[in-house]
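Cont'd.
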Amino acid sequence: MKIRTKWLGIAAAAFSVAAIAGSASAQDKRTIALVYGIKGDAFYVTMEKGAQAKADELGVTLLADGPSQWNPAIQTPIVDAMIARKVDGLIAVPNDPQAMIAVLQRANDMGIPVVTTDQFIGDGDYANGSVTFPLSYVASDNFGGGKLACETLIEGMGGKGTLYVLVSTPNVPSDVARRDGCLAAVEATNGAVELAGVDYTQSNATIATTQTQAALQKNPNITAIFGGNLFSAQGASAAVKTANLAGTVKIASFDAPEQAIDDLRAEVVDIVIAQQPALIGATAVQYIVDALDGKTADIPRKLATPFVVITRENVDTPEAQAAIYKDK
Amino acid sequence: MSESSTTAILSCRGMVKRFGGLVAVDNVDLDLAAGEVLALVGDNGAGKSTLVQMISGVFRADGGTVSLDGEQKVFASPEDARAAGIETIYQDLALCDNLTAADNIFLGREIRRRRFGLLPGLDQAEMRDRARTVLDELHIRIPDLNAPVRALSGGQRQAVAISRAVYWQARIMVMDEPTAALGVPEQRKVMDLIRLLKSRGVPVILISHNMQDVFEISDRIFVMRRGAKVGDFPTSATEPNEIVRAMIGG
Amino acid sequence: MTVQSSGGADTAGAPGVGVQAVRLIGRVWAWLFLLALIAFFTATAPHFFDLFNFQAMGANTAIVLVLALGQTFVIITGGIDLSVGYVMGLATVVISLIMQNMVGYPLPVALLAGMAGGLGVGITAGLFNGFVVARLNVSPFIATLGTLGIAQGLAFVLSGGPPVSIQIPGLGALGNGYVVYWHSTFGLGLFGLPEGVTGPEMRNVRSFIPLQLLYAGVLTATCAYLLSSTQFGRHVYAIGGSAKAALRAGIPVKRDLFKVYVLSSVMASLAGLMYVLRYTGGVASSGDALLLSSIAAIVIGGASLFGGEGRIGGTLVGAMIIAVIQNGLVLLGIDPFWQYAAVGAVIILAVLADQAKLRIVR
């Protein structure tokens, strides 16, 4: 079954590339669809901006839309509508790794090249995995991001001390990858840095506060906390303040919406790890256009984009400013 | 079928109640004199409860007038009727099981006081004392005034409901099947309470299916059938067979 | 109904020492359980028995407790208010949006404006719940589920989804600080660190009475008085015992239900205000995960979801039990997932204890 699907997928991809290459010459301006993960999220707004800038540069039209909530049943009709509009390429942030396979397969069968960003379908390995028809999976390397965050914290700790980890859930792959990346950084110190524990905050600041307080009580030597998302970091910060330890315990926060930058300036957190959604969007557009131009061989099946570390020292530099997610 | 008394405390004329097409009470007159126990009897669905609920303000009459001491009254709600002195003891008692006897006696009419001269609060000690007094007056023994009434027996609960009416100086007491759910010793206790009310001059309208009780305690027997009044007998001048014949229309 | 009256009369006629004792234990079992938990964790968990830890637990459970205070009234009337989590979330968003636009104003002015907005949210939501429950006779579960959705939607629409932050200096201190600080060399500080304390010296400051605990304490005392000692409180119990009896006794049941739902929503919006002070911002989902904890606290405290039973003291001890379990299990180094299971087990234990008590007393 698996092998057959794979062969079918490759055949379909080859077919689609050929078909598009044919149609491309017949058309002056190509249209690419971006179906992002959820409306109104600064991360996806920024991704769309990056994609739009690249589309303008390459002379293609970008159509962007997405579901009002994170739900494959709502996202599917949006993708279908894009197929019906006969777009030339599709960039999607699939809401579910399994449920979104069928509709993206449908696009691919219609000869529309597909790139997924931020999230993947199947097992995420488009070269040898269960699903291979998408051209590429462009996303941040969450493992690398967690690792970078904790390496930065450890550097600030002077290479030794005790570190505590808070992530949102134990069952979302990106959270797990961030956690594991951080734990890898701790392990790399060969015992110089001790791990105080890992807790799960359900993305709720109040719960994060309760957990951090108990962790600080148990282990008064904690000098750094990794917050796997904004709420985890905010919750940790409140507990640190209640313990009169503000300033003596460093906190890293993952993701860089405006709120995280505000928190950074207000000394709620000390380090913000920014993904680069704009770069992700731009890269995806470039890959689609490359595919339409027949340069399929140059496209990597997976691209991990790097991170930007924002601190109070560098927050006003153009690089850091460019990395902040935009709401509108 | 003559008008029984010119000294009637309560006087109802031409009472009518319809539920959709059904006429539940059809042009009924009823009078009640001071210190009188009136037994209201009739088969199920004869309209006894409906008539009584118009008097106690639960239903609005579709026709007819209710006068207290010769003054015509319109009761929009049970509170109106209660404010006028008509207290009703319902079949299901209308007690809050989770509250104490004292709480129930003062339910909706709690004694309030200001704490430290400003905070609105309840005067719980005063309510408990007064509850104790009225219960003693009626020879009702409730061992633990702090227990919720769900811990009391059926007869004790009935007694709490009656003492509530007595405390609030009911001018007329309406009792709908007060002994229906009770064992025999407790039925006796309730009968004693009705006698006590009578001795204090409080007239009672008693709905009952128990002929023995009716003949034991009432002064007058008022019979209804299919919404209409079919008989009004002085108890001393009638006997059970006559009442039953009137009830079933024989 | 009590049919075997003589049997019932015997039990009730002589409340023996046994029944009295059961009644007493029924009332205080949760406190005994709390003491047992504290004794257990004191013996097993390092750093548990510590004044700072107790104060911090109190501060951390303050928001859940406040959320539960108003809900206690609702549950005693036999209802439930599922909307408190998102009413709290909506309040945090509204307060934050107002205060965000008041940067530059003095803190008290901005705070009062934010509070007014938050209370507005609470009162509106409560009136709406009261209207649907008392006037339209919709079951509280459904009515407040609807309000939950509306509040959630509004909160997301107003905030656009992401959290709303407030940049007003001094705001966070109101949510994270203490009333009294003490340092052996730098001396005493009220509502702030003693002058001169910086860096590592901060670890040597002793602090007393977290502000979050102070806020929650004032609200708890107010609600306890309202429920136990006022006519309104007595009517709340009466409605839960028998709404029909309450109505016949002349209690304005509908008006009191309005009051109860408004109280619940207003407490939720005050919990929202405490969240804003603590995290200097608001987000739609801030109260979502706290709803079940707050209901759990009430149930552990002895309230019945069928109405008529419950006390603010019970809700307080219920919230404390949950806080102690969560804290103690972390200190023991037990997997965080077991915390859920432990709280769940205590809820079932609480309900069983309650049923046993009722059986014996009846």
